[in-house]
Q: What sequence folds into this?
């Protein structure tokens, strides 16, 4: 378990970038934390670290699953608005086999893999965030 404290959105991106350097094809990154914790900011760092354009990473309003092109494809799912039955229909199990799958609100994914990176972001007030990462 690694713990990183950040005090800005940029620092949370940087944490994602550091993790991106370790990722291998097929890895799944589950990102937990309350609304506004910085989950999308972390994914922006993953994108940057994987050589994709970080400006394309946003909280999808209508798109549940986005794909960014880098050294390998990065798939970004935001399951916030979905019920578990709807998530099951997405076929996330088959998504990201050729790259990386990053998932916000992974608790909605009942069949989420147990072998995955788990990133938990706690909002500690103001701009302070505690990011815990375990494999
Ligand atoms: N240390 C920090 N790390 C990340 N974001 C921070 C930090 N401090 C402040 N912020 C602010 O918190 C917000 C984080 O937004 P972001 O969309 O990344 O969160 P999220 O967890 O994806 O939210 P949602 O659950 O709505 O998808 C941004 O407005 C950002 O500027
Ligand atoms: Mg988000």
A:
């Amino acid at each position: 378990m690694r713990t990183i404290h950040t005090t800005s959105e940029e620092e949370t991106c940087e944490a994602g970038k550091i993790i991106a350097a370790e990722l291998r094809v097929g890895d799944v990154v589950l990102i937990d934390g309350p609304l506004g914790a910085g989950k999308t900011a972390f994914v922006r760092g993953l994108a940057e670290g994987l050589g994709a354009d970080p400006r394309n990473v946003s909280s999808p309003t209508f798109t549940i699953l986005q794909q960014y092109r880098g050294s390998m494809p990065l798939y970004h799912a935001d399951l916030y608005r979905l019920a578990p039955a709807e998530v099951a229909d997405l076929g996330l199990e088959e998504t990201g086999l050729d790259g990386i799958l990053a998932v916000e609100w992974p608790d909605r994914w009942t069949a989420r893999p147990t072998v995955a990176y788990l990133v938990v972001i706690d909002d500690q007030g103001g701009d302070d965030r505690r990011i815990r990462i375990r494999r």
